[in-house]
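Much of the work behind modern protein science is quiet bookkeeping, done one molecule at a time. The protein below has been through that process, and both of its lines are reproduced in full.


***
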Amino acid sequence: MTTMIEMIKNLRQETNAGILDCRQALEQSNASYATALSILREKAIQKTNEQSQRESSQGVIELYSHGNGRIGVMVEVNCETDFTALTTIFRDLAHEIALQIAAAAPRWVKETDITQEILQQETEKAAGKARAEGKPESLIPRITSGYLKKFMDQKVLLRQVSIRNESLTIQQMIAQVSASVNENISVRRFERWELFNNQDND
């Protein structure tokens, strides 16, 4: 049977949360590890939202090359202080984000970066396909809504599921580190190149 101390240790490893926060989450969840994990991740996102208005002008530009140079990534990850920018936890985060971009090929950082024109095109594409398949007109709005959600989950970096930890989205991963260092952390921009691939980031 897993002890409270072991669960706290595991929660800290997964979320970078403090010992007291982990203990409180376990108490709040009646010692349910999964529920405590969810509580800590939600708390990290809330803290990140509170910090998001603070200026983050420091950081790092992470470079990554994959497949003997066939895929290249450059991503700018920002934080508030040069001290945090030099820490291992921040540098590791920037590297993980670069790996994600190389493997999952997102097109945008956040969903608000997608133009209304592209959203309209994708909506019309989904609606046209549904009608061609004979779906009732009353179901078209629900179908297009589901399609757009899946489209953004696949193409928006912050909404993507981590390639290294399927229980986390990239936004949740950033939130955990942000809460740990008590600074606003954000991805400003990225570029991804692939040999013999003409698709550009929008």
User: Anything to note?
Assistant: The chain is about 55% helix and 15% strand. The helical segments are 4-15, 19-28, 33-51, 82-85, 88-104, 116-132, 140-155, 170-181. The two ends are 50 Å apart (CA to CA). The chain has a mean pLDDT of 89.
